[in-house]
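wait is this the right file?? whatever heres the structure
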């Protein structure tokens, strides 16, 4: 009987040791899984903090992008804007100006040659159609949109008589000016010399903090 008791005690001890070992292993595996999960959460969170969002702004016209040289930077304000990629000047191939992206027409200036535009992502632009301040030349412009109108990319905004304005001695260049710049990120302009309406002219980066 004593032998059976010893054997039973030994078997019971082995079983208890086995289960204790398994329990410790399970706890270690769970701890390792939790650690891996925490690392994965930190990695995902870190990636979210580094994700760059942005807005593609298309060209409003077909034409050649005017290169800015130091000799032509007589106006310091305009020169600085061009130099910082906040303003791009295009020599249009025709007299049609299109919406550079989907958005809203915030303001139409009285003569019809300037439009303040806000993209769906909140970037505000000023489209200057010819550098003209003569009110008598307003007959050369025809707007196809209204203030506060929501438009899609490629919508014809304005038509203007390019040849007629040129005869009047008006510079018929079209400029795209950034009214707001991102606090973080950067503005990247196209490398092309000639661009078609709708092709990417600017890319405005912004850091996603969500």
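ok assuming it is, sequence goes like this
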């Amino acid at each position: 009987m004593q032998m059976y008791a010893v054997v039973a005690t030994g078997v019971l001890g082995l079983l208890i040791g086995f289960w204790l070992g398994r329990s410790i292993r399970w706890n270690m595996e769970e701890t390792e899984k939790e650690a891996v999960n925490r690392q994965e959460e930190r990695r995902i969170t870190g990636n979210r903090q580094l994700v760059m969002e942005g807005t593609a702004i298309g060209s409003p016209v077909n034409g050649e992008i005017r290169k800015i040289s130091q000799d032509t930077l007589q106006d310091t304000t305009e020169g600085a804007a061009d130099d910082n990629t906040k303003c791009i000047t295009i020599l249009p191939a025709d007299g049609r100006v299109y919406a550079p992206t989907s958005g809203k027409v915030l303001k139409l200036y009285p003569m019809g040659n300037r439009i303040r535009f806000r993209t769906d992502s909140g970037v505000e632009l000023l489209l200057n159609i010819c550098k003209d301040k003569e009110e008598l030349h307003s007959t050369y412009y025809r707007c196809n949109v209204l203030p506060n109108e929501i438009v899609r990319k490629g919508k014809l905004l304005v038509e203007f008589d390019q040849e007629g304005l040129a005869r009047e001695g008006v510079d018929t260049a079209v400029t795209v000016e950034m009214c707001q710049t991102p606090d973080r990120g950067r503005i990247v302009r196209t490398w092309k010399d000639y661009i078609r309406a709708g092709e990417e002219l600017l890319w405005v980066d912004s850091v996603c903090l969500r």
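Confidence is low (pLDDT under 50) at residues 44-51, 69-84. so i think its the right one actually
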